[in-house]
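Dataset card, provenance and construction

Sequences and ligand SMILES were collected as paired inputs. For each pair, a complete structure of the chain with the small molecule in place was predicted and serialized as structure tokens. The example below shows a pair involving zinc ion. Curators did not alter the output after generation; any descriptive sentences attached to a record were derived from the structure itself.
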Amino acid sequence: MTSPLPRRRLPAHLGRLARGLADGLAGLAYPTLCLGCESRLPDPADALCATCLRGLPRADAEAATRLLAGDPAVDSAVALWAYDPGGIVRRVQHALKYGGRPALGVPLGRALGLAVATTGVRIDAVAPVPLSRLRALDRGYNQGATLAEGVADSLGVPALDLLVRTRPTRSQAALSAVDRRRNVDGAFALAPGARVAGRRVLVVDDVLTTGATLAASARPLAEAGARVHVAALALAGG
Ligand SMILES: [Zn+2]
């Protein structure tokens, strides 16, 4: 990679330091418990103990590929775990998204990065699906960005904000497959100054349901000449 790419606004090590301090202070008052078995975790950045992590249901290896197979912007797709309503994967995803614990994203992202590496796909940079500014302000962080950091770390490549939102979108949760596509169609654009031609970019998100969000995120990157791969922590309904 020769030309400059936009860096994340806060240098990654400062972000990690700040989160580490915050988690460390919180850990003094509230020990961090495994979201699966409630055993005490030595590292407050973790969501699960090693036993629960190993026991999570893996997603059907071909399901993510099947969901995005018809999309010309997407070269390959990986999902790590099967989203289990009422189960541990759902608890982990909720803690990451709504639990005010963005640091969870880093170790989870590392696990996803390992899954991507085992597929043999080579990646030059990792990009999160951008959150709308309102939602980011409301939540205080983008869980996708911390996931992207972990994925990038395990692949030994940079995490870069290569995408921006062009307009707000509704939550996808209650929408049909057709409405999900309509909701996010054209909602993402290449970040100003991002040069991705000829690069292999991995776009990451927490949950893959119909693939509409990841496909809409992949499009501006593919149109700018990148080869786009997508990866999600969990696959819903697969
Ligand atoms: Zn556990």
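Derived descriptions for this record:
The chain has one domain: 57-235.
The chain has a mean pLDDT of 86.
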